[in-house]
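ESCALATION

Customer reports they have been waiting on this structure for their group meeting. Please prioritize. Original submission:
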Amino acid sequence: MNVSSYIYNKVSSWHCSLLQRTLSLFLYSSLSALLLFTLSGCAIPDDIPYPIVEAEITDIEVEGMCDQSGTGEGEAVIDRAKRRMRVYVDDLVDLGHLKIKKVEVTNDALVIVNDTVYQTSDIYPTGKLTVQHHRDSFIVDGRHPLSVTLRTWQDYEWDFEIIQIINREVEVEGQVGDAIVDPDSRVAIIYVNQSADLSKIKVKKFSLGGQHGSVTPDPTKQPSVDFTTFQRYNVKYGWSDSTYPWTVYVYTTEESVEPTATIAANAKGASVISGSRPNGVTPTVEYKATADAAWTAVAPSDVRYPTSTSYEVVLDRLHTDVEYTYRVTFNGKTIEGSSFYFEGEQLPNSSFDDWQITGDEKKPLYLPWGANDEPYWDTGNHGATTVGASNSTYAEEDGRRYADLKSKYIVIKFAAGNIFTGSYLATDGTNGVLSFGRPFTSRPVSMQFDYQYETSLITRTANGGWDNAYGKYISRALFDGLKGKPDALGDWEPTSYKGTPVPYLIRTRPNELHLMDMNDPHLIGFAMMTCGRNVTQWTTENLTIDYRNERTPKYIIVVASSSKYGDYFTGGEASHLKVDDFKLIY
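Update from on-call: job pushed to the front of the queue and completed.
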């Protein structure tokens, strides 16, 4: 193509408000000054807005990523709603020269990190960040918060937090309380009981440089150390060949650590017994149903020690309808705990009280999460609103807010109202691509919920198609009945859709159908209810989960739909499901 005629065509067909953007991109390719002169003569009024091209970060990878403990493999925590990212890195990483190995973005956005521009390239997979001079990675200073901007026609600001986990453990014989460790001033202060001889302190743990660092001289290799005055040590970190001086003080104190025991529920509803302990003392933790006589001792391997003066036990396999009690014993002294009930891991926003409405007035998009919340449930509204209105919304009656799911024919296609744990990834033509499932590791015995239902005769059907999940052709004749509420627990290995991790990928395009396979070997537990009658009053249903093996789940899938074969675009246009208050029973 002739470059000059290409520019001329752009000038004659585009609005001048876009030309400054076009010009900057052309100059990036080093066009001649003659082209610059040609463009500068445009005098078309500037009254057409820029197109809205949103951009998101779908994946990011940096060197040394780990979990919050600093040991296992980790992955980025990405909150798209709040445009935030967080990664944890181990103690082998030099934060001052942190390598970002991969960034995946949507719509080929430019990525600007602390005012430095990086761009995607057509010679690499679309959406994967590449840099001319580094190719495999680029380097940033991660010691301070990073500002990340995605640039299309608009700028989208993201926060990027990098947390380095350096597990420093300091413990000496006769220690009282945890050591005070200040990495900024490189000072450690240790307190011991008054009877300790400061001239002969036995050092048990001394990892000031973290798991992969070293200390010279190593005090744990010596019979004892004289701490009547401070001691200096050279500390080497895992990422550096240099050593850094640390100063360590040991003082006596009249204080002592008294053992304690409390119980509380963590974010997943598990019961956590925790407290303080004298240095080096191993507690015995026991629990039982209040009505029983026999106690059950927690295995020593299940007791965690976050610090040298604390302990923690997580109880996550109890019944929700039984009262329990506990006790903890330290060197023959027993602390009797209070009674408690096990709550169990529950599904966020399971009462469907929190929603937000976006989009225009004619086609409002209903989203089943609060404006400041991270999504857990989603609907097919993203596809429905491309041609019509949302058919999965909320409604209120008698002080109750619930999910209101209606089957409708929307302009060109039948759509069943639905809500599911997971996210709507994309609209492929008039078909949906869905990510089913959210992380989940508990084993409830059943799921309870409230519902009303209005049935109707099937008025819309769709052609059959090859179902990749079942490996067979689904004929049109099978599309009858109405779908209820399936619930599944599984340990699938996540797949990926355009860089987004997906527990279980669902496609509804007829020539590439991929729906739920009930024979999938990764399916751990399953329950389903179908309803073909009118239920005019709020009714509570309890579904027992049928477990097929003893494995621990990785994900939970919960789906409610107003038409049984709604994923095949088949059902009755007047079918109407109201659902509320999902609860997992243990």
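Sent to customer with the following note: The first strand starts at residue 57 and ends at 62.
Escalation resolved.
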